[in-house]
């Protein structure tokens, strides 16, 4: 396995060979094809997809091997990391695993994200991550999850962040299907404000999706993973290395594939637009397509948004379409423009509608919470809650009537 395979790719190949799913020669050939494609500028095909494309493994076998690889790589005997006590794993994604941890020195909960080895394989990459973590740590905004520290644990690196007591938007959508227009626009408005603040400090996110939006128990939306962002000015470099494109295919803007170094703030507007579409419809763009088909559609300039969005008003559809235009020049030019469009739709005067009146250089105070009328889950249930509330009211009325009858009979 000498074709410059990463540590995790080597482990994947070793599992394949040890379980006699393929020969060492077949695995080596796939690794070489991966490197050849990356040198040719094609970088969106995963190792598992390459094995399937070559007819060596089925998708079910790839999934089984990947599950075993993750179990071997991520099973941790260590209970303490750099002064932080690990409690439990609370999330996992392409950018690493997240743990709830405790910091005894400050008596507080934190979240620790352990970055994948393949993203920090060389010293230059580590220095870039350190610079990005420093940039993110300088951000102070109520709709952005702050980064506290960046450290090393053995041969892996990690970010220490604020622990958010709540759920990410993806989890909420999986449970509820979709959420009301009023709530979705409030979430989008708060994330647009977070983007405005980050953009004003030279940072773009590049991987905006429901999984990177946390909703606290008191209903505030908070943007995660800005520690893995890209500097707009290029002064500190960026984390895109040869053969790696940062982003999640269904939420990626076309330029992230065709011109990764040309990504700017309009890429984040695209991601927010797709996220808004998901909130309102409960659907994910390209959800029936393979990764390669999604890449082909994006490169061909195909919009992720269908021609018809049932149940959404024409003005709202127009906002989503402009935010997700395949050509960056056709999108809103900045987050301010997105906020103005949302406010017009909400009918809010001035800078109301939960967007705050503070400028880009300050953290707003006294902003109305995302959901003003009760706990988060009650507001996100929408019509289902209203139906349940109707049954509760009817049941209560029936019970009161029964009590009145009993009292009347006893009084006779």
Query: What general form does the structure show?
Result: globular
CATH architecture of the largest domain: Orthogonal Bundle
CATH names the topology of the largest domain as Transferase(Phosphotransferase), domain 1
Task: Please give the CATH class of the largest domain.
Answer: Mainly Alpha
CATH superfamily of the largest domain: Transferase(Phosphotransferase) domain 1
* Helix vs. strand class: alpha+beta
Order of helices and strands: HHHHEEEEHEEEHHEEEEHHHHHHH
Question: Termini separation (Å)?
Answer: 93 Å
What share of residues are in beta strands?
A: 5-15%
* Average pLDDT score: 77
User: What is the number of domains?
Assistant: 3
Which regions contain 5 or more consecutive residues with pLDDT less than 50?
Answer: 233-246, 348-411
Number of beta strands = 11
Q: Calculate Rg over CA atoms.
A: 24 Å
What is the percent of helical residues? 40-55%
Across the major sheet, the strand order is 1-2-3-4-6-5
Can you walk me through this structure?
This protein is α+β, with helices and mostly antiparallel strands. It folds into 3 domains: 7-74; 80-162, Phosphorylase Kinase, domain 1, CATH 3.30.200; 166-383, Transferase(Phosphotransferase) domain 1 (Transferase(Phosphotransferase), domain 1), CATH 1.10.510.10. Helices cover 44% and strands 13% of the residues. The protein is built from 14 helices and 11 strands. Strand 3 (96-103) and strand 4 form a beta hairpin. The protein is globular, with a radius of gyration of 24 Å. It starts with 6 loop residues before the first helix and ends with a helix.
């Amino acid at each position: 396995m000498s074709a410059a395979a990463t540590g995790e790719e080597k482990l994947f190949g070793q599992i394949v060979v040890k379980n006699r799913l393929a020969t060492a020669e077949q695995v080596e050939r796939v690794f070489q094809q991966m490197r050849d494609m990356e040198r040719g500028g094609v970088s969106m095909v995963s190792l598992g997809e390459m094995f399937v494309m070559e007819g060596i493994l089925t998708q079910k076998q790839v999934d089984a091997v990947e599950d075993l690889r993750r179990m071997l790589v991520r099973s941790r005997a260590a209970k303490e990391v750099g002064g932080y006590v690990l409690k439990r794993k609370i999330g996992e994604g392409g950018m690493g695993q997240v743990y709830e941890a405790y910091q005894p020195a400050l008596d507080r909960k934190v979240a620790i994200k352990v970055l994948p080895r393949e993203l920090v394989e060389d010293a230059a990459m580590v220095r870039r991550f350190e610079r990005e973590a420093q940039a993110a740590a300088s951000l102070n905004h109520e709709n952005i999850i702050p980064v506290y520290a960046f450290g090393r644990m053995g041969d892996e690196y990690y970010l220490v962040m604020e622990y958010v007591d709540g759920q990410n938007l993806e989890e909420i959508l999986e449970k509820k299907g979709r959420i009301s227009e009023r709530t979705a626009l409030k979430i989008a408005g708060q994330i647009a404000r977070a983007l405005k603040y980050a953009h004003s400090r030279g940072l773009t996110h590049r991987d905006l999706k429901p999984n990177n939006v946390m909703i606290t128990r008191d209903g505030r939306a908070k943007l995660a993973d800005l520690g893995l962002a890209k500097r707009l000015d290029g002064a500190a470099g960026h984390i895109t290395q040869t053969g790696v494109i940062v982003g999640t295919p269904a939420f990626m803007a076309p330029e992230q594939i065709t011109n990764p170094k040309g990504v700017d703030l309009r890429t984040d507007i695209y991601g927010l637009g797709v996220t808004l579409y998901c909130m309102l419809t409960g659907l994910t763009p390209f959800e029936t397509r393979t990764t390669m088909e999604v890449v082909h559609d994006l490169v061909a300039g195909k919009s992720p948004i269908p021609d018809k969005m049932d149940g959404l008003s024409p003005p709202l559809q127009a906002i989503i379409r402009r935010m997700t235009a395949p050509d960056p020049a056709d999108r809103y030019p900045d987050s301010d423009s997105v906020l103005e469009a949302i406010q017009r739709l909400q009918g809010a005067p001035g800078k109301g509608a939960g967007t705050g009146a503070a400028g880009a250089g300050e953290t707003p105070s006294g902003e109305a919470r995302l959901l003003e009328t009760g706990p988060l889950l009650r507001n996100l249930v929408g019509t289902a809650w209203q139906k349940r509330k109707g049954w509760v009211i009817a049941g209560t009325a029936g019970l009161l009537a029964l009590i009145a009858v009993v009292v009347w009979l006893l009084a006779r």
